[in-house]
């Protein structure tokens, strides 16, 4: 929750009420640190609302879409400045309603008849900075920081199986077609990988070992003739488990491809406003917050070349 301190200056044009010269009224109100977004007619509207009393802050940016601000560059960052203007206004509004609707307040072609605006103060000068940072991860149960195998601080050059996908994005770090998360890299979930499962005791944990039972047959080749890129369901002796963990079974059926990978993506969009003339906010730079939207969590799929 962010507390904003509004200074109502003696500029009577801001309201329909009279005031005395020299009166300064300081009002404190709370908005969440997050904001929402909706698409209008060839524009994006960033907004946040609160009840008790009912208020809103909104910024409209014309000729912009959500896809535009999620189009990050090679560095996984999008950053752009926009000038406030009559077509890109920054508004503070108050309402007579005791509570505001959760949808339809902004970007609705037909204004909600149930919502009555009692004050609308607008800034048409200043700068809005929008920044988007994309973070990708494999959600394999290992924090990305612990997948820096060579310890040089660069996650992109750690690729145990040589499939072109760095370990922190690779759901199968050793390329054995058994998902890393299923190879118990962190059995007790404490973030310490020293107890990672090592079936054959060779000092290489299963999630980095391409021959988990050390029987001379690669784990990915210990499938039956009906290959599905999943050695876990090929079981000769149910008392021991999958053949790739049973050193007494060394049947080889050469694998022909890797399994499909899912890489999870999270976009973090932040917005700041500077040099604006919304006189009720006595800040040089206003942190509008972080965008809260389900579209910011997504994924992409790929299958490495075998």
Describe it for me?
There is one protein chain. This protein has two domains: 2-135 and 265-300, no CATH class; 139-262, no CATH class. Helix content is 1%, strand content 31%. It is built from one helix and twelve strands; from the N terminus they run βββββαβββββββ. The chain has one helix at residues 66-69, and strands at 2-8, 25-31, 34-40, 43-50, 55-62, 77-83, 90-95, 117-123, 127-137, 261-274, 285-291, 297-302. Strands 3, 4, 5, 6, 7, 8, 9, 10, 11 and 12 form a ten-stranded mixed sheet that branches. The longest helix is centred in the N-terminal third of the chain and has 4 residues, at 66-69. The protein is elongated and about 80 Å long. The protein starts with a strand and ends with a strand.
């Amino acid at each position: 929750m962010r507390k904003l301190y509004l200074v109502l200056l003696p500029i009577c044009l801001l309201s329909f009420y009279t005031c005395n010269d020299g009166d300064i009224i300081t009002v404190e109100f709370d908005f969440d640190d997050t904001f929402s977004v909706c698409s209008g007619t060839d524009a994006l509207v960033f907004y946040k609302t609160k009840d008790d009393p009912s208020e809103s802050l909104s910024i409209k940016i014309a000729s912009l879409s959500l896809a535009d601000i999620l189009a990050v560059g090679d560095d996984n960052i999008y950053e752009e400045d926009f000038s406030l203007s009559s077509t890109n206004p920054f508004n503070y509004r108050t309402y007579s309603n005791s509570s505001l609707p959760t949808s339809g307040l902004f970007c609705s072609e037909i204004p909600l008849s149930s919502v009555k605006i009692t004050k609308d103060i607008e800034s048409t000068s200043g700068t809005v900075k929008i920044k988007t940072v994309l973070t990708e991860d494999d959600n394999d149960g290992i924090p990305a920081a612990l997948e820096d195998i060579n310890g040089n601080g660069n996650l992109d050059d750690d690729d145990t199986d040589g499939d072109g996908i760095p370990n922190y994005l690779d759901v199968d770090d050793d390329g054995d077609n058994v998902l890393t998360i299923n190879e118990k890299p962190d059995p007790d979930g404490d973030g310490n990988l020293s107890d990672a499962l090592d079936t054959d005791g060779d000092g290489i944990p299963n999630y980095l070992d391409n021959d988990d039972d050390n029987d001379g047959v690669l784990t990915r080749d210990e499938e039956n003739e009906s290959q599905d890129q999943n050695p876990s369901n090929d079981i000769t002796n149910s008392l021991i488990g999958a053949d790739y963990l049973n050193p007494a079974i060394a049947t080889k059926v050469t694998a022909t491809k890797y399994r499909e990978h899912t890489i999870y993506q999270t976009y973090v969009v932040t917005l700041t406003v500077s040099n604006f003339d919304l006189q009720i906010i006595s800040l040089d730079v206003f942190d509008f917050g972080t965008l809260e939207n389900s579209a910011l969590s997504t994924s992409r799929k790929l299958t490495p070349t075998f």
